[in-house]
Design a protein that fits this description.
It comes from Collimonas arenae. Belongs to the ABC transporter superfamily. Keywords: ATP-binding, Cell membrane, Membrane, Nucleotide-binding, Transport. This protein has one domain (about 1-314): Rossmann fold. The protein has helices spanning about 45-55, 75-85, 105-115, 120-135, 150-160, 180-195, 210-215, 230-235, 240-250, 290-295; strands at about 1-10, 20-30, 35-40, 60-65, 70, 85-90, 170, 200-205, 215-220, 225-230, 300-305, 305-310. The protein has 10 helices and 12 strands. With about 325 residues, it is α/β, with parallel strands linked by helices. The chain starts with a strand and ends in a 5-residue tail after the last strand. Bound molecules: iron/sulfur cluster and magnesium ion. Iron/sulfur cluster (SF4) binds near residues 281, 282, 310 and 312.
């Protein structure tokens, strides 16, 4: 359904004369219809920027984004607006950008009005239906966001995203602000909706447990680059990139007899405005070699559908 290749997003630096920040640096991945791709990495790694660039909510600097057979980067604003019906976003706080005086009904009706879908009476009916689909009472349409708990608000955020019947939903830290028990309910809702509506997800999160729970494939990002990608199972059971290994060593094991050494990374994430030379990970990498300090590693296919960007796998 979605094929992203060579995606780049640069932001100009605040300091005059300084090099631009490469927030997303040559990222490629595909997502098949009905599947979930998880993007994981620490804050500042470019995963949110990737998610937003894919929907062209921010303009990519370079790259190709093929979605439903069209190259999104080539679309002018009118056809892009029409295409938005098919690709929606769920945010961490669904109400952050909305007028707090709007009722839930108005919040949910808005995408239908924007895309000129249905007449007024049918829109009201669609709003009632979608509330029911996400497990909320249709009578909530007259209430305001502040009357709801975090979990209920996120149900509304999901309802708003799927009311136009999109094919692709980008979820950016969609459960990160919620208590763990509520997180599980929302993740289960998203998975039920995926089955019922054949949705495709790009799921962005810093939380490795969440990503493991929802993803078919995952991509691990570090300082704007995709360092490892593969099926969820293969990446979690046999991580290859030293950064992925370190990240995964920090989460609880699935089986008590699984042996996994805790790898403590030295130092903190470097400033994305001045990333280390060669492999961006080299100052923190336990396996760093001389070549890593000067040459960016190539991306190598280590098995079918599995890619690692590291000199160890050349
Ligand atoms: Fe470590 Fe070198 Fe691989 Fe980078 S390329 S992750 S520094 S071994
Ligand atoms: Mg983010």
């Amino acid at each position: 359904l979605l094929s992203v290749s060579g995606l780049k997003k640069q932001f100009s630096s605040e300091r005059r004369g300084a090099a631009p920040v490469k927030a997303v640096d040559d990222v490629s991945f595909d997502i098949e219809e009905g599947q979930t791709m998880g993007l994981v990495g620490e804050s500042g790694c470019g995963k949110s920027t990737t998610g937003r660039s894919v929907l062209r909510l921010i303009e990519p600097t370079a790259g190709k984004i093929e979605f439903m057979g069209e190259d999104l980067t080539a679309l002018s604003s009118a056809p892009l607006r029409a295409m938005r019906r098919n690709m929606q976003m769920v945010f961490q706080d669904p109400f952050a950008s909305l007028n707090p005086r709007m009722t839930i009904g108005e919040v949910l009706e808005e995408p239908l009005i924007v895309h000129k879908l249905f007449d007024r009476a049918s829109r009201k009916r669609k709003v009632a239906e979608i509330l029911d689909v996400v497990g909320l009472s249709p009578s909530y349409a007259d209430r305001h966001p502040h009357e709801f708990s975090g979990g209920q608000r996120q149900r509304v955020g999901i309802a708003r995203a799927i009311i136009t019947r999109p094919k692709l939903v980008v979820a950016d830290e969609a459960v990160s602000a919620l208590d763990v028990s509520i997180q599980a309910q929302i993740l289960n809702l998203l998975q039920d909706l995926q089955r019922e509506l054949n949705l495709t997800y790009l799921f962005v999160s810093h939380d490795l447990a969440v990503i493991r729970h929802v993803s078919d494939r995952i991509g691990v990002m570090y300082l704007g680059r995709m360092v490892e990608a593969g099926s969820c199972e293969s990446v979690y059971s046999a991580p290859k990139h030293p950064y992925t290994r370190a990240l995964l060593s920090a989460i609880p094991r699935e089986h008590p007899d699984q042996v996994r050494e805790r790898i403590i990374l030295q130092g903190s994430i470097p400033n994305p405005a001045a990333p280390p030379s060669g492999c961006h990970f080299h100052p923190r990498c336990p396996s760093c070699m001389d070549i890593c300090k000067t040459q960016a590693p190539p991306t190598t296919a280590v098995a079918v559908g599995e890619y690692v960007t590291c000199h160890l796998y050349r």
